[in-house]
Structure formats: structure tokens, C-alpha cells
Amino acid sequence: MSAEDSSWRTPEMESFHTRFSAWTPFSNKSLNRQLFQERVALISHWFDLWTNKQRQEFLFAIFLRCTKSQLRFVQDWFSERMQVAKVDFSTVLPRFISLYIFSFLSPKDLCAAAQVSWPWKFLTEQDCLWMPKCVKFGWFLPYTPTDNEYGAWKRHYVACVSHLDWLTPREAAAIYGTLNEPKTEDEELLERQREKCLRKRIWEEIALRNKELFKVRPPWVSGTCRSSVLKPRRQPRLSQTVRERVGSHEALEKQLVLTSLEILPKRSNISGSHSYPLLSKKYWHGVHKNDDSSSYALRPHFILISSRIPAYEMVVESVKAGVVSVVYEHSVTLESLLYLIEKALDGRKAQSMGIFSDGDSREINLLQGYKIGVKNLLRPEVRDFWEKLGSYVATEEEGGHVDFFVPLGASVLSDWLGSQWGKAPSSIYFCEAKLQTWSSFADFLEETLKTVRKQLYPLFKELQKSISGRMIGQFMFDTMGMTNILNNQETAQALADRLMELSKEDSERSVVEDNSWDTKSRLSKNDLNFEALINLERILQKDSAEKRTRVVRELLQSERKYVQMLEIVRDVYFAPLKAALSSNRAILSAANIQILFSDILQILSLNRQFLDNLRDRLQEWGPAHCVGEIVTKFGSQLNTYTNFFNNYPVILKTIEKCREMIPAFRTFLKRHDKTIVTKMLSLPELLLYPSRRFEEYLNLLYAVRLHTPAEHVDRGDLTTAIDQIKKYKSYIDQMKQNINMKDHLSDIQRIIWGCPTLSEVNRYLIRVQDVAQLHCCDEEISFSLRLYEHIHDLSLFLFNDALLVSSRGTSHTPFERTSKTTYQFIASVALHRLLIENIPDSKYVKNAFILQGPKYKWICATEVEDEKFLWLSVLRNAIKSSMEK
Q1: Is the N or the C terminus of the chain less surrounded, counting Cβ atoms within 10 Å?
Q2: How does pLDDT run across 341-397, given as a tens digit for each residue?
Q3: Residues 776-802 as b or e (16 or more Cβ within 10 Å = b)
Q4: Secondary structure, 3-state, 429-487
């Protein structure tokens, strides 16, 4: 039967073959489409008869069975026919994105936005929006909000703003003073009128602008002000939400770091308390307007004495009783100097202040890196320093003044300009008899030095002769046998005579320098008459041409010796290695020979040409001839030296590597290093000559220009040549400094166990501070009642971009008194992510502060108060510098 059925089926019947059910044809598309439309019509008829609840259940069942592409199709269809015109972004976006958008608003705009709707009010009063705005001004909550407390930081901000007092620039200048030049009455009146007109114009513009904005204001703007931060250009795009969230976090973190620096106590008193960043006017009157006459008598005189001046101890002993004196180190900062002044005055004002420092009539060498003069007086940090310094001194109406003892001797012992105070300022601070003793003592030391030099000259001459003899004997004993020494007594005698001549020339040169110095010192005195000055000038003019010729010949001679040292490298090292390579007995490969000697051979070629030019010029030398143009031409070709110095570390490493890896090269160096031919020098020592040569160039060129008259043609070329050599020498010094800093970082990395790699570009060490790490038993109570426990000893390594924290321990060696300090790495924090918090002094803790990073927190304390202040000052400056980059 099956065979008959199979034979009975036709192709037409195959088209009715069904799939999944008897109602769906498998391959007949027309019938399939007809049946599908009929079923859709049937389901649509049933859908029309259902209730709303039944329809929703049906749609829910259908949507559960749909794939993602089908659901996306429904969504696109719905969005095309039912477009959303307006929607509240705070109800659509995630909460952290909405908070990030609101973080761009000012406090006034946040208060306006809180009036739009309840969702906006809830978001705009979050503590994460108001806390940075409070911290920015140093306003901190006196308590910790509970988890369920809402809007605490906003209420604190409103309370702080409502109690603020502010000063106009004119009121601030009247109270604190200014460094600007005083204006006349007419200029002051004209400026007031200009300010009044400008203010009136600004008000009119604001009123007109408010009228325009009132017509098209958004619902969340009050109409009295413009919400500039709510412009569409300030709103973030949704495609960059992740990146903006990270940026918001970094901006908030940066703001917290800067705020932590601002709230640190600038200058703390002995008890450790400090003033708040803002003071109301009710306190200014008591601080700045204490005009009672009894306060004048209590105001002391104050004198600052630099430790850089000679014999400053005697100056300190000369200070009168009742005058407050402070001796400061030349390497401190301006902020540290202000701290020392405030600590010494202890809240009082000084009737007058004197500054006894190094300098001249044009500038004051007050601190290292701060030569204060007319050029830099208006720099922000210098101006701020003088304004704060002036606030410690009584006003001009009260008889206050500041005195500068510059230059030292003249200012102390000579007449001062004006007679405002009726007596010299030096008599206010010092006992004049003791100052006269100090001045006489300085002159006595100078005369004593001259006498000692003359008395010891024969002894020094004999000592030079003895040392030269020992040097020659040791040199000949090391290089020659006893027979050769006996046969070369004439050579030994000639060497001894030459050394004696050299020592004699050096001594004569020193005597000439001393005489020139004595001459200059005598010229500065008033008892030198005009005839002696004329005779001295004639003698100097007569000898200038001869000295100039002598210096130029010395330049030629030193250049010849320098070229000979470079030729030693070529003849003793390069030529044999090159010959061995050509004879198939290679000691070094061609690549290594190229690395070691290619740059030094180019330097040899350049300096040989320079030597030939000098020799040709000296053959026809005269007083009118010039040497500056030759040196200038040489200075324009110094890129050859640049290649050598850039490859210099690679050359030294190649030498060391080849010495270790190639026995033939090690034998070659042992045979040629430190021989008579190489002047008892090794190959690395010979390669030092190019870096040392530029110091000799500068000294010789300075000497040539010193003896070249101002009207000479060669004067300008010499100045240009000196500038070229000086600039290139500074480049060499910078390379040396970078290498030294890199070695220093390597040394630190080696002594700290577990330390990560410290070598990075432009990184250098600023300061190392030893502190004690403390642990607080209960951090919920106030600072004044907290108890701390000393748990570890730490060493803080401050770099220009990071702070490295390590534990410090001490290990002792058996049977030895010496001890060894060991360091263990703990953590490193980038400076722009480091928060600093001061801990006020109490009876339980002194000189403490908190360092907080992203993951760690350290409570540290120094031994003395000065160390804490200096450390925080340096750390604050380093953080600001790193964040400005």
C-alpha cells in the first residue's frame, strides 16, 4: 500500500505538504500568505472583542516571546508615531549624571532650581553638591551629619554667607595699605567720578538685560538674575557621560586638594591656634585700630639680621636691650620669614623694623632666589610679602618706619637721608660703640690676612718645592727603574726646575691679584688722591696690551695641549682597534668602534681647525688684531659636541660592557690605560676632557676681554663668543645635573626596600622629613581631647610630583657602636591627590598634621614646631607647583 500511495502522489500534491500543522502549507507561498492573513484577521477580530485588561495581558505575553530585534522594531515604530516633546532629564538619566549636571550651577542657581519641582529640590540639596562649595571657602561643619540628615551642608553654607562682611578695594586699601604710589586729590576725585559713571552704566546694562530675560526666562529662573550656567552649551552630552563623570571626580578631587592647602595655618602662634580665613569687621577694629597712647610705649623695635653677612654674631651682640632681633637663614622662604617675624612679635606691632641684609644700592639680597629690587618689586609673592610685613609695623601717623641697612658698612656708619627721627636709624637698634668695633674688626681681619700671607710666603715656597720633589720622585719611580733614574738626572732636574717656575708664576699671579684687590680696596677709600689714580690708570693701560697678548698665547698653548689629549685617544685606542679589525683579528666590532670613537674624532677635527686658525693669527699678532671672530666661528659649530654629550652615557656603558664581555678588549685596556703615552690616564678619564674644556674657554676669554679696551674692535666679538660658550656650558651643566638627579633617585630607590622605580623624566627630590606616625584611639571627639599613640617612625620623601612614605628603622651591628638606618616602602601618593589637614596643638599632642591619599591616611608629628611649619610650607608649594603644570 505504501508503494501504491507513493506512486499515486503527483507534483501538485507535493505543494500541499504541511509543516507544524495541517493548516500551513510547506512550500506553496500563495496559500501560505492567504492562510496567514486569515489568521491575522481572526486574531484581530478576537482582539477587538477583548477588554482592556485582556488586551494588556495578550500584549505582555506577545512581548515576552519577542526577540530583541522585534522589540527594537516596536520601539522605533512607537517613537516615529508618538514622539516625546519634553521630558525631565532628572527622571530619565541616572542620578549620578543628574548630580554631575547640577554641580555646574552656582549656589544661587541651585537655590532657584530647587523651586522647580520636588525631584529637583531633592537633587539640588544633596551634600555632595554643597560640601565642595563650603570647603572652597574653608567652612566646615562643626559636627558629622547622620546618615538620614538631609541638606546639612546647604544650611551651613547659607548660614555662613549670611554672616559675611566684605570690603571694597578702597576700604581694604585704607585698612591694610597698598604698595601703589599715592595719588593727588585731583587724581583721586577723577578716579571716583570714573568709577561712579562706570557703575551707573553697568547697572543700566544689567537692568536692560534683566528685562529681556524676563520675557523668555525658564521656569526655574527667578527673573532677577541670569542663570548663565544653565545654558545648553554647558550641559553634558549623553554620549560622554562616563568621561564626564571621571572628569567631575577629578575636578572635585583637585578642588579638595587646593582647599586643604588654603585652610592650613599660614603662621601659627606658640599655642598652635590659628585665625580663620575670614574675619568680620568687629574684629578688625581691635586689631588694626588700637590707637591708645599706651600701646605706643609697648611697641618694640624689631631688627632682621641675615646669617649671610660677615661676622653676624657680633652684629647680634650689638643689638640694644629691648630691641627684638631675629637671625634668619638665607635659604628660607618668604613665608617662613614672615612666620619667624610673627612668632617673635607674639601678636604685637613693631614701632619700627630694620632689615640688616646683604646687597647694594640697587637690590637687596634678602633670601636665596629673591634679590628684591625695582624690577621684581611688583611680583605677586614679593608684593604680598611687603604688604604683610608692613602690617606688622605701626603706621606712618604713629611714627612707624622700615629701615634697610644696605650697603652694610656705609649704612651703619655714615649719614642717612633725612632727619625725620632726629637720629640715625642705626642708633635705634644698635649700640654704636659695638658697631664701630665690628667695622674695625672687619678691617683688622683684612689687614691680618695680608700680613699672614706675606709671613707664610717663604714657608709655602719651601712646601711647594718639597711637594714638587716628591711628585717627581714618585712619578719617575713608578715609570722608570733605578738605572734609568740615575741615567736621567738631568731630566729630573729639568722637571723640578720647571715645576718651581710654574709655582713661582702662580705665586706671582696671586700676588698680582692681591695687589689689584688691595688697589681696588684703597680706591674705595677717601684718602686716595687724584694723582695716585692717574698714575695707576697709566700703568694699567701700559700693561693691558702685553697682558692681552700673554692671555691669547695661553689660549693657544692650552688648545694645543687639548688637541694633543684628543690625539692620544685617536692614536692609542682608535688606530690599533681599527687596524685589528682590518686584519681579521678584531678586538671590537665595527659597530662598537663607531659608538666609542666617531664623535670624539669629529671633535678632534673641529678643534684642530680651531687650533690652526689661532696659530695663523698669532704668527702676525699685534695689539690691533682680533681673536673674537675665530672663537665666534668655533662657537657656531658646537653641534659636534652636542652629539658627543648626548651619546656620552652610552659610550661609557659600551666601554664597561665590552670590558666585561670581551677578554681581548679587557687585555687591550690593561695594556694601554694609565701609561706614559696616555699621561697616566685611562680611556674614560680622557673622554672627560671635552666637558672640562669649556670652563677653561670661559676663563681665558674673560681674561682676554678684561685686557681688551672698550673701544677695541675685538670687544664685541669677544662678548658674543663668551655668550656662546657660556650658553653651551650651561647646557653641559644641565646635563650633569640631570645625571646627578637620576643617580640620586637610584640611590634612594636602593636604600628603600621594596621601593618601585623612581627614575622618571624631570623628577627630583625636594626634601626628606622624619616624622612619627600616630594613631588616634577615638576620632569621634574633638581634636583638643583626642589621645594619640606613637606606632611607627616614618620618613617622608618629597619629590616634585609625588610623596613617598616609608617606615624607618635602626639596626645595630654586634660589637660596634655604629647603627644603620633601614627603610621599608609603604606607599606613594601623587601630589595632586594629596590632602593635608592641620591638627591644633593640645596638651596631648604637639606639631601634628594629617596626610591623606586616595587609599591611605597618616597622622604624623614632627619633633619641633619649626620642622612642622617648614615641612608644610615646602609641601604646600610643591603641591601648587605640580597642579599648575
Answers
A1: N
A2: 888 888 888 888 888 887 776 678 888 777 777 777 777 788 888 888 888 888 888
A3: beeeeeebeebebeeebebbbbbbebb
A4: HECHHHHHHHHHHHHHHHHHHHHHHHHHHHHHHHHHHHHHHHHHHHHHHHHCCHHHHHH
d(CA 431, CA 319): 6
The 10s digit of each residue's pLDDT in 745-801 is 888 888 999 888 888 878 888 899 999 999 887 777 877 788 888 888 999 999 988
Show Cβ contacts of residue 392 under 8 Å, excluding neighbours closer than 6 positions: 302, 341, 342, 345, 349, 350, 353
How far apart CA 126 and CA 133 sit, in angstroms, is: 12
The larger pLDDT score, comparing residue 448 to residue 57, is at 57
Amino acid identity of residue 195, one-letter, is: E
Reading the block at residue 245, the C-alpha cell is 563623570
Burial 524-538 (b: 16+ CB within 10 A, else e): eeeeeeeeeeeeeee
3-class SS letters over 486-550: HHCHHHHHHHHHHHHHHHHHHHHHHHHHHHHHHHHHHHCCCCCCHHHHHHHHHHHHHHHHHHHHH
Measured CA distances, 864 to 270, 772, 807, 870 (Å)? 11, 12, 20, 10
Angle between helices 689-706 and 714-751 (to 10 degrees): 140
* Cα–Cα distance measured from residue 184 to residue 196, given in angstroms and rounded to the nearest whole number: 18
Question: What does the alpha-carbon distance between residue 324 and residue 326 come to, in Å, rounded to a whole number?
Answer: 7
Which amino acid is present at 185?
E
d(CA 872, CA 876): 6
**CA 744 – CA 759 distance, rounded (Å):** 9
* Radius of gyration of the chain from its Cα atoms, rounded to whole angstroms: 43
Lowest mean pLDDT among 42-51, 306-315, 769-778: 306-315
pTM of the model: 0.43
Reply yes or no: is the peptide bond before residue 407 cis, omega within 30 of 0: yes
> Dihedral angle at the C-alpha atoms of 227, 228, 230, 232, nearest 10 degrees?
140
How confident is residue 171, by pLDDT bands cut at 50, 70 and 90? Answer: low
Across the beta sheet with 301-306, the strand order is 324-328, 301-306, 352-356, 401-404
Please name the residues in contact with 356: beta carbons below 8 A apart, sequence gap of 6 or more. Answer: 303, 304, 305, 306, 309, 315, 405, 408
Q: Which helix (H) or strand (E) holds 123?
A: helix 118-124
Q: Which amino acid is at 158?
A: V
C-alpha span between 111 and 716 (Å, rounded): 70
Phi/psi for 766 (5° steps) reads -100, -50
β-strand 802-812 against 819-830: which pairing, if any?
A: antiparallel
Proportion of the chain in helix, strand, coil states, percent, rounded to 5: 60, 10, 30
Q: Are 123 and 90 in contact (CB under 8 A)?
A: yes
Question: Is the distance from CB of 327 to CB of 316 less than 8 angstroms?
Answer: yes
The CA distance from 507 to 418, in Å, is 49
Q: Residue 51 has what pLDDT? A: 92
Coil, helix or strand for 235? Answer: coil
Helices (H) and strands (E) in the chain, counts: 34, 15
